[in-house]
């Protein structure tokens, strides 16, 4: 199979401009947001309807060509890297918000709609779409569903899964199928919808989603506290939870991240602090005021060196920038930035952060850590240079050690970035043989020819 | 295979008293809470550990004996009726709350723990387990997970699925496997946990669950409004949602239910009302006060004939009794009570209630309707007599008409009771051929011998 073969075969299905086959056009579709992973596809296609997706998949099946679906390629586990070559099926022309239903608090959108646009459409109607992955200004909702993306509001509002009511998917044989309904309660058969959420394009291709919305919280306040000792920050988080408070976000930056962010964004962070907590409360104004006052008191009781409550929305945005810019700030330091994504039960988080520090020392690699303290989701960020082979070996050893530490603490190898290629070597260890085999069984049932995003999550025995 | 064969074969695995084989002992395990469905099992076994469950399943597989798992048999779709004979595996001796983890807001419990005990254990720790199926004082958490049970708090708090972080299951080959972790965020592989939730014992047997808890809301207030016209009640609900208010419960009773409940529980309901809304708000005290005041105003603007806000907890309980006793009150009227469970998008609810009234008239059957107005989940309750063959034919026609009306309105054949036997004839119509075949494919993959709760949800082609 050659690129001209693909153009010839799909020319009657897709417009000429919706098929890319020139090498220079293919390069951008060979990688995603994950460092060091690249492959070149045979061709890239841009269907403009579910029917076209179906036709492409049917053809690919007959021609036995792998199909990797993707949106805007912001993934952080290599999920859309076309490791087996074949077609990249890019859904970003399926970019229509189909319906916002105010009576039923739902929004229906095609897979290629940018997450931020879902949020904005809901917001304009006085409603709220909570999942806010770091990439939401670029990432598409189809990608979010494929990865079950999280974000900063996970503690209070959950993740993408918690907002997907229904979806349209194209199966491996090209058939089109609707899963779920507009009903909040629906127990008619196994929840295949939930099976597809987080399946990383390996079971089918999600072309449209129906999402649940919430009323927009009427108030929101932001607070930033700095600590000279990380254990005090951790104790503060425990005290907040013990007080029955569930903040909308509860984020953490370590010393290296603080220094970097300050250097980059000039937020006014004390660069000698060992930990920063960024906390947002939202809801009814009186509830938010009480929560913020209570949180401020708890921070001070746990030896916070400074506590700043944003006076207005502008200051809140400035404080939130400290966290939102962490990755960009860190990425400036070294040529290669590897964003880890382990998660542990909340009570293990302080110990896990110390594990990461010890691992960085032991393997002589630079690691800055930030993440979602409230839901135990850490992003140890390794600053390195992929051209330095010796250092990359140490980086690999450090990543393995981080993942093993998370597993030893009852955690998961990936909280929100997915398995893709990056976490494939560790999955069996987390799941155990019985569950791991079940995953493979599901894959074989749904995609018997193994053509949908092959080589991701796990390898299949021949 | 005879009952003595079973006793002989499992005698080394289970205590003698944990195997029932006498006909009079088997009868109670031949039915659940669903009217008119009964079968007799070959034997009933009561394992006391996951290992014993595994041993029983392994033996059953070798002996090719069907296994129907169940808890306390409160199901409302016939899910635990042993239609193919074989073993009933009753999990109610697995009744231990293993751990309540305050730091991580989780509770780990064996499958046979009664739902109310989960709620009470959380409550005693200042925490909150929201799912509250009508049967929660008797039903077990394993059954709730198997059916993905809902309840009265679904609008604000979701259903059982939204609280299951992890589980231990025994698969069809007897292997024991853990799904999910204690992490709120976990995207390591397909969510098999979600596939098992609501799978009605057909894919494996859930032996232990790890549940998420919330902080207990600090305030709760209850309000009861009566309406002379059902449309006004529906308009009130729409206005509440449009105002950005999500009450904890938002329940509805129709005229016949009101009359019955008043006759039974003497709550002081006006028996000439056409609709009653029972509304509970919970959360921060100031938020609750604002919500209740706003809701009261909206009720009055939409021509409520009376609005009663409970002055204290005792009065709130009395008002809530009106809704909680609906089923028991109705069940006194005729020998057989069939509780339907269709759900439609919220905006279709008033029309759906009128559909049900027209269907009752057309088929000359008595139907009283109550349910969860907030999440579109209706329980049209058919009052009949299963000994009257002619009437039962009319009842069957009415049920079919109700289910078809729900589907025509974009709804589901079951909101919270499951498919089991009762909804099996309608499932394919809701899902369409492609999804329906996928369900069968999943079943065949997980249970190739078809021995786990056979004949439920769908039939398999030979």
Automatic annotation (TrEMBL), chains A, B:
Residue ranges of every copy of the FAD-binding PCMH-type domain listed in the record: 37-216
Which keywords appear in this protein's UniProt record, sorted alphabetically?
A: FAD, Flavoprotein, Oxidoreductase
Identify the cofactor(s).
Answer: FAD
**Record GO terms (molecular function):** FAD binding; oxidoreductase activity
Protein origin, superkingdom: Bacteria
Q: Which Pfam families match?
A: FAD-oxidase_C, FAD_binding_4
Q: Where are the transmembrane segments?
A: none
**What is stated as this protein's family in its record?**
Belongs to the FAD-binding oxidoreductase/transferase type 4 family.
Which PANTHER family does its entry note? GLYCOLATE OXIDASE SUBUNIT GLCD (PTHR42934)
Q: What name does UniProt use for this protein? A: FAD-linked oxidase C-terminal domain-containing protein
């Amino acid at each position: 199979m050659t690129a001209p073969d693909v153009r010839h075969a799909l020319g009657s299905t897709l417009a000429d401009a919706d098929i890319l086959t020139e090498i220079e056009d293919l390069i951008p579709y060979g990688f995603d947001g994950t460092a060091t992973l690249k492959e070149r596809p045979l061709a890239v296609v841009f269907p403009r309807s579910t029917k076209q997706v179906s036709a492409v998949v049917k053809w690919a099946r007959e021609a036995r060509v792998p199909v990797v679906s993707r949106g805007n390629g912001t993934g952080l586990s290599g999920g859309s890297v076309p490791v087996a070559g074949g077609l990249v099926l890019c859904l970003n022309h399926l970019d229509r918000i189909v319906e916002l239903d105010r009576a039923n608090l739902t929004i229906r959108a095609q897979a290629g709609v940018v997450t931020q646009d879902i949020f904005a459409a809901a917001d304009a109607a006085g409603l709220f779409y909570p999942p806010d992955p770091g990439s939401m200004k670029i990432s598409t909702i189809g990608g979010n569903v494929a990865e079950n993306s999280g974000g900063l509001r996970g503690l209070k509002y959950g993740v993408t899964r918690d907002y997907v009511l229904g979806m349209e998917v194209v199966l491996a044989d090209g058939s089109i199928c609707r899963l779920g309904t507009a009903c909040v309660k629906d127990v008619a058969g196994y929840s295949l919808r939930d099976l597809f959420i987080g399946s990383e394009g390996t079971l089918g291709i999600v072309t449209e989603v129906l999402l649940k919305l919430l009323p927009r919280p009427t108030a929101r306040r932001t607070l930033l506290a700095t600590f000279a000792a990380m254990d005090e920050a951790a104790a503060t988080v425990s005290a907040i939870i013990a007080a029955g408070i569930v903040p909308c976000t509860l984020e953490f930056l370590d010393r290296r991240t603080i220094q970097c962010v300050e250097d980059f964004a000039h937020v006014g962070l004390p660069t000698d602090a060992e930990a920063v907590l960024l906390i947002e409360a939202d809801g009814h104004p009186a509830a938010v005021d009480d929560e913020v006052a209570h949180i401020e008191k708890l921070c001070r009781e746990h030896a916070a060196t400074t506590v700043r409550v944003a006076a207005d929305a502008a200051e809140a945005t400035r404080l939130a920038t400290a966290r939102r810019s962490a990755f960009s700030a860190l990425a400036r330091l070294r040529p290669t930035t590897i964003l880890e994504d382990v998660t542990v039960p909340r009570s293990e988080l302080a110990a896990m952060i110390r594990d990461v520090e010890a691992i960085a020392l032991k393997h002589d690699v630079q690691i800055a850590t930030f993440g979602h303290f409230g839901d135990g989701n850490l992003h140890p960020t390794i600053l390195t240079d992929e051209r330095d082979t010796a250092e990359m070996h140490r980086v690999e050893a450090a990543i393995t050690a981080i993942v093993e530490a998370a597993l030893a603490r009852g955690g998961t190898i990936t909280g929100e970035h997915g398995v893709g290629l990056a976490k494939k070597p560790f999955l069996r260890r987390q799941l155990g043989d019985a569950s791991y085999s079940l995953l493979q069984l599901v894959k074989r049932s749904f995609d018997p020819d193994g053509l949908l995003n092959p080589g991701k999550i796990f390898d299949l025995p021949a």
